[in-house]
Amino acid sequence: MRGMNQHDHHDLGLQADLQSLLQQTAHRRRALRWLAGGLGSATGLALLGCGGGGDSGTTGSDTTIGTGTGTGTGTGTGTGTTTCSLIPEETAGPYPGDGSNTANGSIANALMLSGIVRSDIRSSIANAGNTANGTAGGVTLAVTLQLVNTNGSCAALEGFAIYLWHCDALGRYSMYSSGVTAENYLRGVQVTDANGQVTFTTIFPGCYSGRWPHMHFEVYRSATTATSYSNKLRTSQLALPQAQSSLVYATSGYTGSAANLRNISLGSDNVFSDGSDTQLVSISGDTTSGFAATLEVGISV
Fold first, then answer.
1. How far apart are CA 246 and CA 62, in angstroms?
2. How far, in whole angstroms, is CA 277 from its chain's centroid?
3. Which domain holds residue 260?
4. Measured between alpha carbons, how far is 295 from 274 in angstroms, rounded to an integer?
5. Residues 27, 73: one domain?
6. Helix or strand or coil: residue 2?
7. What is the torsional sign of CA 171, 175, 176, 181?
8. How far is CA 256 from the centre of its chain?
9. Is the pLDDT of residue 257 over 80?
10. What is the pLDDT of residue 127?
11. In a domain, 56, yes or no
């Protein structure tokens, strides 16, 4: 009986070992199939995390990793991990000077001025047929805008044109407002560099009644097309922070701005009341040496 039990045990052990070996082999095969499938799914999920936002809403976001150079056609790649948002489309307001309306009985189009492509926009451009010779006074402000493609992995957009305009220290718009209809200062166009950037040297705008301190801008495919509002890709506005605005409005030359600022908020402004996260600039500096503001501008191209 004992010998038989030993023999039976030996036979069962061999069968069990063989069965175990077969099971282990099957397990390994299943594991390899699962791993391959899992890696494919993980890659698919990672790719789903990249890509562009569209024009279906006011904002969108993209995330990408890589390096390279943007181009005017909306191709290229940002450096490092980047998240970008589509900047909201906003009104150009009544004083765009882009050929879409009139001032003093004629079409107001600063984009057609010889010399409008410039970085320092504090002085007016004197052309044949106008007597513009004024310079806007106020606290110096350098505004850097970086244009990125929300529909192309947040690539820097090189070779695009940005038209920037805003009011002076007293809240007046050149070409339109009483006292400065003959001027065209605080208006200019620049072409984005390889990093998608332009920098305008200007002044801190005043705060006029009913509006938060702001600037207007339009984006064009190129400097060649930046001649009329009909060619623009997007119109938006940027907002300036309250703390720095208050400091500026305590200086001379900004008559009425401090009081106007106290009577308005981002939440009650007719442009920024629906959200200003993508339009509020980052800013540094002081009223003596001037301020520097930066804003990423996402468009879908």
1. 34
2. 11
3. 61-299
4. 18
5. no
6. helix
7. positive
8. 31
9. yes
10. 87
11. no
Least confident segment among 54-63, 83-92, 127-136: 54-63
The whole-angstrom separation of Cα 192 and Cα 226 is 13
Residue 61, classed as helix, strand or coil, is: strand
107 Cβ contact partners less than 8 Å away, ≥ 6 residues apart = 99, 101
How many domains does the chain contain in total? 2
pLDDT higher than 70, residue 34 = no
pLDDT at 65: 29
| Beta strands 140-149 and 290-299, pairing class | parallel
Same domain (yes/no): 3, 129: no
Q: Has residue 60 got a pLDDT over 70?
A: no
Asked if the structure places residue 54 within a domain, the reply is no
Residue 122 sits in a domain whose CATH number is: 2.60.130.10
pLDDT on residue 301: 96
| Contact criterion met (CB below 8 Å) for 165 and 87 | no
Both 124 and 238 in one domain: the answer is yes
Instruction: Give me the mean pLDDT over the 272-293 stretch.
Output: 98
Query: Does residue 238 sit in the same domain as residue 265?
Result: yes
11-15, 45-49, 125-129, 281-285: least confident range: 45-49
Cα gap 166→160, rounded to integer Å: 20
pLDDT bucket at 58, cuts 50 / 70 / 90: very low
Q: What is the largest CA-CA distance in the chain?
A: 124
φ, ψ of residue 137 in degrees (nearest 5): -95, 155
Q: How far apart, in whole angstroms, are the C-alpha atoms of residue 139 and residue 152?
A: 37
